[in-house]
Amino acid sequence: MSPNWGHNWLYVKIRLFFCRKNMKYSNNTMQLSTMKSDSASPQSQTINHRQQTTGQRPPATDHRHQPPESSIIQIHNLTLAYGSTVIMRDLTFDVHKGEVLIIMGGSGSGKSTLLKSLIGLFRPAAGKILYGATDYWTAGQAEQNRIRRRMGVLYQHGALWSSMTLAENIALPIEVYTGLKQAQVKDLVSFKLSLVGLAGHENAYPAELSGGMRKRAALARAMALDPEILFFDEPSSGLDPVSARRLDELILELQSSLGTTMIVVTHDLDSIFTIGTRAIFLDASQKTMAAIGDPREMRDTSDNPTVREFLNRGKGKERAQRSP
After folding, report:
1. Helix, strand or coil for residue 266?
2. Is the pLDDT of residue 284 over 60?
3. Which of 82, 113, 225, 291 is the one with CA 20 to 30 A from 7?
4. Beta strand pairing status for 71-82 and 85-96?
5. pLDDT at 83 (0 to 100)
6. Closest alpha carbon to 118 in 277, 237, 266, 231
7. How far is CA 40 from CA 62, 113, 119, 139, 210, in A?
């Protein structure tokens, strides 16, 4: 975590006091009082991920036995293809409210393609993606827009506008989708930057920041409209190990504080074991999902050799380095 996080969190609390004059709160998440009627629904109950960092994790749950109200997204028999080339087939799983779900697998397994399909950028060849009772890909344009308003996305390379300051980047969606006055937008932008440890960097341009700071700024923009669901595409890509660890810690802190459901595409083992509540493994050779569950349990007890190899890679090298 950034060494200034404690000071920034105090700043967040001060900002929060003033923001409450213009915003209403429900279930630990901010809901803009001037938001249009199709704004995101209140956040779900928080899962305490601090238990994960101490090794005191709750037992893994079987997604097939979850009551329907615990699932925020349901994927049924999904097939992803580019023309006649099938990437993944027969994907069926649920995303539970408040969890951090990892989408993992080797290069070319279709992780990012699945993410694009979930956020409405890639039409699947077959199957359903249900947000509540609504199938996104058969819904009308207005309903699709309403569903997308519930999402925030952190793209692999941040996708910040290079000609805009951080404040302008974060203010853009707020100005487009809310009726807030400029003073309110400015205050909210400062609040979002404080959440990611970037208080005081409102006037900086993306090129003036380190890779880790750009990722955090992009995360602040993804949270601009208080989404119910956050999507991450390889968040640690391009970061050094220390910056990647700090970003993981930030993701956990935000998830614990806000209770946001998070879906993270990554192949980074440290991130998988640090932030993941559950994980799905996409097998490129079989072109389907090979496993789902707690990634730590999959690493230790999976009967699928491909899954075990993926989650235990590097262990032999570590043992060799420790040998006298």
Report:
1. coil
2. yes
3. 225
4. antiparallel
5. 93
6. 231
7. 27, 24, 15, 17, 32
Task: Please report, for residues 77, 267, 270, the alpha-carbon distance to residue 236 in angstroms, rounded to integers and kept in the order given.
Answer: 30, 9, 10
Beta bridge partners of 102: 264, 279
Residue found by looking up tokens 């893994």 in the block: 60
How far, in Å, CA of 193 to CA of 189, rounded?
6
Sheet (strand 85-96) strand order: 85-96, 71-82, 126-131, 134-135
The model's pLDDT over 168-198, given as tens digits with 9 standing for 90+, comes to 999 988 988 888 889 999 999 998 888 888 8
Report whether 202 contacts 192 (CB < 8 A): no
Gyration radius from the chain CA atoms: 20
Confidence of residue 77 (pLDDT cuts 50, 70, 90): very high
Is the CB of residue 277 less than 8 Å from the CB of residue 100?
A: yes
DSSP 106: S
For residue 309, give the 3-state DSSP assignment.
helix
The full DSSP string for 133-202 is: TEEGGGS-HHHHHHHHTTEEEE-TT----TTS-HHHHHHHHHHHH----HHHHHHHHHHHHHHTT-TT-T
What is the CB neighbour count within 10 angstroms for residue 193? 26
Q: 29 - beta bridge partners?
A: 26
Report how far residue 163's alpha carbon sits from residue 294's, in angstroms, rounded to the nearest whole number. 42
Q: What is the pLDDT of residue 180?
A: 87
Looking up tokens 């707690």 gives 294
* Averaged pLDDT, 239-251: 85
Predicted model pTM: 0.74
